[in-house]
Amino acid sequence: MKKGLFAAYLSVILAMTFWSLTYVWYKMVFEFYNPITTVFLRLVISSLILVILMLPMRQLQRMKMSDFKYFLLVTLFQPFLYFLCESFGVKEVSSTISAVIISTIPLFSPFVTAYFFREKIMRFNIIGIVISIVGVGLVIFERGHDVEASAVGILLLFLAVGAGIGYSIVVKKLSGRYNAVSIVTYHNIIGIFFFLPLLLLFEWDHFISTGFQQQAVVPMIELAVFGSSLAFIFFTIAINKIGVTRSNAFTNAIPVLTAVFAFFMLGETLTVLKMFGIALVISGLFMSQIKRLPRIRKRSFIRPSE
């Protein structure tokens, strides 16, 4: 393997690892702070890091005022709606189930791209979608007919999935004008102003009364540094080297990695049924990503005429 390809695959693996760990770090921070406070602080720390690092490297492009409305729309989807729904969802649902639901974003993307960009959906892709949905059901309905997670938490996580898809549609318009680092930096900065009123209205008193919590510092910084900053940088490197499709395929590993990390770090259960459901989700996700099946050439047993 060429050195450039090795660096690209290493980058995308690191990005997926960091994003998988965010679900574990969320659980640690939520022991002290509420979701809005957590996301607000995460965005502040991440924005500071990106600006400090990217400005000297001249990677931060200047935003055109004509594109400001698109950045507002991108920010509305992510980080605002996505992080808001994801954070409250993770608070109600286990880390493993959260990662499995969020990992279904590639499942529904083909339908959206088919509508907006006229991309065809293969029958094989639809089969993969159905298989993954069955897998999600096995993970969620682990105890017979009893839901192992809050219905509200599940709904919020699926709303986060919708926000993630909306983000990908709008960001496609901006990606031709700005690099990924600039897009991420700007929508994080704008996101701070989206979350600030919510923090002041709903969680300011709790934040002040909680004060500085030393045990929450490390996972909060990990969320910002690894989840919101480095993961996006590594993912950008991978996209530049191996393309969007190959890079996105690695997101299928997030629920598996999260389940493993949650098992070792949070003591969450990892039953056989849950592992089987995760396997179905991942298998279906890969099937839903396949663009074209190889054609089998038929051998002719009719000899050409002499």
Notes on the protein architecture:
This protein is about 75% helix and about 0% strand. It is mainly α. The chain has one domain (about 5-120, about 150-245). The radius of gyration is 21 Å and the shape is globular. The N and C termini lie far apart (about 50 Å). The model is unreliable at about 295-305 (pLDDT under 50).
Q: How would a textbook summarize the main sheet?
A: none
Q: Uncertain regions: pLDDT < 50 for 5+ in a row?
A: 296-306
Which percent band covers the strand fraction?
A: under 5%
Cα-atom Rg, whole angstroms?
21 Å
Q: Which sequence of SSEs, written as H and E, runs from N to C?
A: HHHHHHHHHHHH
Helicity level, as a percent range?
over 70%
Distance between the termini: 49 Å
How many H/I helices?
12
Computed structural class: mainly alpha
Q: How many strands in all?
A: 0
Summarize model confidence as the mean pLDDT: 80
Protein traits:
12 helices, disordered C terminus, 306 residues, mainly alpha
Provide a compact summary of the structure.
The protein is an all-alpha fold and 306 residues long.
Topology:
Layout: H1 3-29, H2 35-57, H3 68-92, H4 95-102, H5 105-117, H6 123-140, H7 151-175, H8 180-210, H9 214-242, H10 244-249, H11 254-265, H12 272-289
Helix pairs in contact: 1-4, 1-9, 1-11, 2-3, 2-8, 2-9, 3-7, 3-8, 4-11, 5-7, 6-12
